[in-house]
Amino acid sequence: MQQSVESLVRLLESYRGRDKIIRTVCYGSQLVGGVLTRKAETDVSSQRLGKSLLLFSAQLSHCRTVLRLFDDLSMLAYSHSYGLGASDEDKGIRWISVLTNVADQLYYPCEHIAWAADAEIIQVKSDKWWLFCTVLWGTSLLLGIIRSLRVLLLLKRKLKRQERDEEGSSRQTGLHRQIRGELLSVLSSAADLSNAIHWMPPGLLWAGRFPSWLVGLLGTTSSVIGLIQMSSSDS
Q: Using an 8 Å Cβ cutoff, are 233 and 17 in contact?
């Protein structure tokens, strides 16, 4: 128990870890709030609790938006350090990663403008800027899925080659671990991409059709996977 508390404290001490915790609580609150407002139509107290959780979720989402006002430079530093990728890296992965970095970099100023418009700091309509944000986020997620599928293909080829050459089991264990990590990344990105499409304008696939609890479920799934991956990389 003490070890779990210490791990949680370490997560909260870092910006990245704190954001993942806030994200998980945000979507978890939306999931529970959505279920309560949907299932407890005759129970006034449950309805009130469900609405309060949905409002709490919305405030946490706003909190994350404000915190991301300062993410541009760190994203720019990462994009600059990656550049066009290492020369020995797979060419497909390199260019997918570069395009992902471009989409992620453009996301932040669009979100800042949308936030400033909602806060009436600037006199523009925020709707189109939130749409740009959603499109860029969805593009980044789709590219991430394609990248993970490419990595999975290369890892499986490498694993088959090692099995054929009867190389050490420790190397194969490492490859299996990487494969599991990429599969989790695909699942996480697919869950977020489903929500991104839901927030697109009506008429595109299932845009606008998800109930609150489903949005919360998909977001909670991707958030928990993110926490697992972060914990694994730290350990």
A: no
